[in-house]
Amino acid sequence: MSKNKLFSTKTLTVLAMICAIAFVLAAFVRFPITPPIPGLNLRYDPKDIVITIGGFMFGPLAAAVVSVIVALIQMVTTSATGPWGALMNIVTSCAFCCTAAFIYKKNRSIKGAVIGLIAAVIVATVVAMLWNMLILPIFVGIPRERVWPLLIPYLLPFNLIGNTLNAAFTMVLYKYVKAALEKARLMPKVEQAQGTKKSHIGVIIFSAFVVGYMVLWILAWRGII
């Protein structure tokens, strides 16, 4: 997307809506994935789904801008982790959303979307692990030696499951959100992602299966089922 189109009135309106929805999801739709860890409150929020959908529509720059805005709003409203928490949110959101949006921008097809989202899961999980080792002791206030034993049994599956949920929900919702915005004339119709109707349905069914599997995994891991 060109710079002029990024700053058009309609685009700014949609991006403002995306920021608002992402903030509400981050603030009020948060739930644990891992079993309780003393001194560490890990909770998944689905804001990156909305930001990634925005990135698919308007490009990686838009995803980065929304990630920064949402993280800063969180910092001054609902977050207790201050600038370090905001920095962590910005880095992890950009790692997922911008990676997916960048690859999809280069290949606007179902294959491009799937490759972009798979790459986003891998990149965001690796980045989150590296930043957890570096930043977690600072903004959570736990000794660094307590972080190392948590990496593989808790932090890796937490980030991997959360990013996989983001990818699956994005794949299911993107087409319908874009169609609704086009119908409301809030964005121009763009070239449809290449692929047959059967491939669209297949990807959606598989993504829904992944979501269901991840939910069952979380419930089993937490001892609920």
Question: What characteristics describe this protein?
Answer:
225 residues, mainly alpha, Arp2/3 complex 21 kDa subunit ARPC3, 8 helices, 77% helix, globular
Would you spell out the secondary-structure blueprint of this structure?
Blueprint: H1 3-6, H2 9-28, H3 47-58, H4 60-76, H5 82-106, H6 110-140, H7 144-183, H8 197-221
Q: What does this entry look like structurally?
A:
By secondary structure, the chain is an all-alpha fold. It has a single domain (3-221), classed as Orthogonal Bundle (Arp2/3 complex 21 kDa subunit ARPC3), CATH 1.10.1760.20. It has helices spanning 3-6, 9-28, 47-58, 60-76, 82-106, 110-140, 144-183, 197-221. It is globular, with a radius of gyration of 18 Å. The relative contact order is 0.13. The model has no long low-confidence stretch (mean pLDDT 86).
